[in-house]
Amino acid sequence: MAGEEDEALEERLKAALWLSVGKIVDEEMLKLGLNATPQFIGALTEMLWAQIENVSEDLQSFAKHAGRHTISAEDVLLLARRNDGLDTILRKCLDQQPSSKSKAAAKKR
Predict the structure, then answer these.
(1) pTM (global) more than 0.85
(2) Which end of the chain, N or C, is less surrounded by CB atoms within 10 Å?
(3) Euclidean distance between CA atoms 26 and 65, whole angstroms
């Protein structure tokens, strides 16, 4: 039963992702005066879903390696370490957070 509930939740999440991707693509296509097929939106959604799965597995592994059950900002920064642009954006966001722990993690690097 838990497996069926997990599958149902995954399908709802995929549907929500498809809807969000579709809206973003439609907005951008209108700006450019182009059209996107439903197949393109579906393929883009599947690619994004696969990336989300990979990122979530990596974040879980980082937290587990650190002996934690909860993913932290440090894990996200570790994941973003090879993407300078993303790393910079994430660190700026952390600096704006009121939590002193988050600021300390961002300053470590």
Answers:
(1) no
(2) N
(3) 41
